[in-house]
Amino acid sequence: MSELTLTVMRLGFLAVLWLFVIVAVQVIRSDLFGTRVTQRGSRREAGRQQQAARQAPPQQRQQSGGGRRGRNAPTKLVVTEGTLTGTTVALQGQTITLGRAHDSTIVLDDDYASSRHARIYPDRDGQWIVEDLGSTNGTYLDRNRLTTPTPIALGAPIRIGKTVIELRK
Amino acid sequence: MSSTTNSPTHHTSTIGAIGAPSRRNTELALLVFAVVIPVFAYANVGLALNDSVPPGLLSYGLGLGLLAGVGHLVVRKFAPYADPLMLPLATLLNGIGLVVIWRLDQSKRLQASNTFVEAAPRQLMYSALGVALFVAVIIFLKDHRVLQRYTYISMAGALFLLVLPLVPGLGKNVFGARIWIQIPGLGTIQPGEFAKIVLAVFFAGYLMVKRDALALASRRFMGLYLPRGRDLGPIIVVWAISILILVFETDLGTSLLFFGMFVIMLYVATERTSWIVFGLLMSAVGAVTVASFEPHVQQRVQAWLDPMNEFKLSRQGVVGHTEQSMQALWAFGSGGTLGTGLGQGNSDLIGFAANSDFILATFGEELGLAGIMAILLLYALIVERGVRTALAARDPFGKLLAVGLSGAFALQVFVVAGGVMGLIPLTGMTMPFLAYGGSSVIANWALIGILLRISDTARRPAPAPAGNPDAEMTQVVRPS
């Protein structure tokens, strides 16, 4: 076998070996999953976000216009008071659980919250419902303590301990 | 919807779940790649040694492809959300290991020695057994949490496996280390390789229960959390066992592996840096003490500190010295950056352990630094996927088990590679998947199987919320 062929094979093999490593790393890169939490700490960035939000509405309306419930369907849940203030969760038809249990969708760090405090879910018509899960200190919609699953109006404050959340478009 | 802010002073964050797709087709593509590379290497060795494509190319390629295919189909059926990388990585390492073992089989120098046996066919058989065990683990271990029930049985089992080589008549002393058992008609087994997995199960189950006591009940002293005496118990026991292994089986590698794995898992379970400090101190004290009176360990340390002197003594015919450490270093040196090319090195000069303990030297010589780096990266990727699995796992037992298994795997690679390259004293362990040795290949396939099972559980999307019976009932009574 000629020297040249062997040299080409030797370098070719190394190249193929490294190609495999690179492909594997690319797979890892495209394989990141789990809960994506984007922290936006600084004021400046928050301002930029607001700007972005101001530009966003027309687009948002278009999106929700295509949905089942038209323009009044809430698209996100926002924490407005308490330690988690500013957290948003996109509403995509999934059940959202609230409580101190670490597997809740929103984990409340709140002394007045029960481990499984309440849940928010869409009923068959796509109306979002809040239900108290037998919590110790209760869940309040506006000023009223919940006893049965109750539909949530857009922007109505749901109070759990020191945490207040509401649904927004 | 990305995010919103209700007031610029508040910190905001967005939580969005990204589902993990099953990724089985990615795995299949990578597997095909992982089978093609060893076939290429095989052809390369044949062309370099005999100027012809080796006659066994097709059957060898088909054999490896069949093993990979069976593994893939079983994973597709029984663990559809498992990690897409581990199986291809293990297949590739196993495949190029087989090629290099076959290449060393062709060496005239090794064939001349009186202990020569064709190792490649046996290794292929061991690999098939390994994949069979892998398949069995994937099929029969439906949920890794079942293993939690066997915490203390695992402890007894691991101790039994570790003590087995010491039993007279059963244990076999090979080149100074007593880590093999001889089963008549079956050959030799290295129970330590299996004990590694069983012990990880015990540590995970034990630490899951005791971690709060270990983490919280401690006094702060000079920035370190000192554990209470009674909590120190388990670490002392494990330390004592690993020292006993070192003394009676004279095997530095196994004791380092077990103790290291325990300290890693202890650290992960308790988040206390003090455990690492204690672990390092205790292993250092133990190793130095044992090295001061155990001649086999002393000799290994001597060979590590001054391999050239060792080589000279061995050449002069002084009994009990080895020229292998120095020869391995020469092999790495003569390989240079790009290597001499597969089949064109002289690493077969190393002699009897060239295809097991010292197989990395052949890679170093024939593939060079570039090849060794790629291979170490392949190992690093397996470990990374294991740790990633641990991060994704939802249950503490699965987390600890995944960390323990990948930690043990990483430690083994480090101990062997470090030993061959002269970073630490040489120990009698084998490179996972690459080196010739049935127990090692089989045990490591089982290890990959357990990791894949944990990752399948971890990456499986949460089941769709079942219709709530209460909600249905309220709708029935609702007026309208």
From TrEMBL, chain A:
Sequence ranges assigned to domain FHA in this UniProt record: 96-146
Organism ancestry: Bacteria, Bacillati, Actinomycetota, Actinomycetes, Kitasatosporales
SUPFAM superfamilies: SMAD/FHA domain (SSF49879)
Listed Pfam families: FHA
Top-rank taxon, per record: Bacteria
Disordered: region residues: 38-74
InterPro entries: Cell_Proc_Reg/RNA_Proc, FHA_dom, SMAD_FHA_dom_sf
Annotated protein name in UniProt: FHA domain-containing protein
Keywords recorded for this protein, A-Z: Phosphoprotein
Source organism: Streptomyces swartbergensis
Automatic annotation (TrEMBL), chain B:
TM regions (residue ranges): 28-45, 57-75, 87-104, 124-141, 153-171, 191-209, 230-248, 254-270, 275-293, 358-379, 400-427, 433-452
Membrane topology (UniProt): Multi-pass membrane protein
Keyword Transmembrane: yes
This protein's UniProt keywords: Cell shape, Membrane, Transmembrane, Transmembrane helix
GO molecular-function terms, A-Z: lipid-linked peptidoglycan transporter activity
Localization terms from the record: Membrane
Gene Ontology biological-process entries: cell division; regulation of cell shape
Pfam families listed in its UniProt record: FTSW_RODA_SPOVE (PF01098)
Keyword Membrane carried by entry: yes
A GO CC term assigned to this protein in UniProt: cell division site
Stated name of the protein: FtsW/RodA/SpoVE family cell cycle protein
Lineage per the UniProt record: Bacteria, Bacillati, Actinomycetota, Actinomycetes, Kitasatosporales
